[in-house]
């Protein structure tokens, strides 16, 4: 069995009067795991850094460029029976403008801005729910460690 790290998970959020809202995307019928609600995900291309994949996938799946990007202190994982491997997934958080106009790719058929509680209820896997909780806790509690995790990129 091999261990790979060829995907990213990106939780998009925006600020509002109550705190933050997460953007969830509903997978299209022709996709793997149809109709589930998820964050932005994608495969890392050869020669691409994981955070570069995160920025590219945000743009491809939502038509947006984030205001800020952080690494989340959590790495998700799953077993892939297709190639008998363990897949490690670095997790990112990205802040969008509160008025961002979402333009979905064909990979998704709908989107929804949700409260952190609703997002955790709608996400399919425990690791994704854990990542959303970490982001909420760090951002809402103004945890100064979140600043240490910010990735500076050219906007």
From TrEMBL:
One of its GO terms (molecular function) is bis(5'-nucleosyl)-tetraphosphatase (asymmetrical) activity. InterPro entries: NUDIX_hydrolase-like_dom_sf, NUDIX_hydrolase_CS, NUDIX_hydrolase_dom, Nudix_hydrolase_domain. GO terms for biological process: AMP biosynthetic process; ATP biosynthetic process. This is Hydrolase, NUDIX family protein. Signal peptide: none annotated. Residues 5-137 form the Nudix hydrolase domain. It comes from Melioribacter roseus (strain DSM 23840 / JCM 17771 / VKM B-2668 / P3M-2). It holds the Pfam family NUDIX. SUPFAM superfamilies: Nudix (SSF55811).
């Amino acid at each position: 069995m091999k261990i790979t790290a060829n995907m990213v998970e990106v939780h998009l959020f925006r600020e509002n009067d109550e705190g933050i809202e997460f953007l969830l995307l509903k997978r299209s019928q022709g996709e793997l795991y149809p109709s589930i609600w998820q964050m932005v995900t994608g495969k890392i291309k050869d020669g691409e850094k994981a955070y570069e994949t995160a920025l590219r996938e945000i743009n491809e799946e939502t038509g947006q460029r984030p205001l800020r990007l952080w690494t989340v202190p959590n790495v998700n994982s799953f077993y892939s029976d297709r190639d008998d491997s363990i897949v490690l997934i670095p997790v990112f958080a990205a802040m969008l403008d509160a008025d961002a106009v979402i333009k979905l790719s064909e990979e998704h058929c709908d989107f929804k801005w949700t409260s952190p509680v609703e997002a955790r209820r709608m996400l399919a896997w425990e690791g994704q729910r854990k990542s959303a909780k970490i982001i909420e806790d760090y951002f809402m509690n103004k945890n100064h460690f979140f600043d240490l995790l910010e990735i500076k990129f050219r906007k």
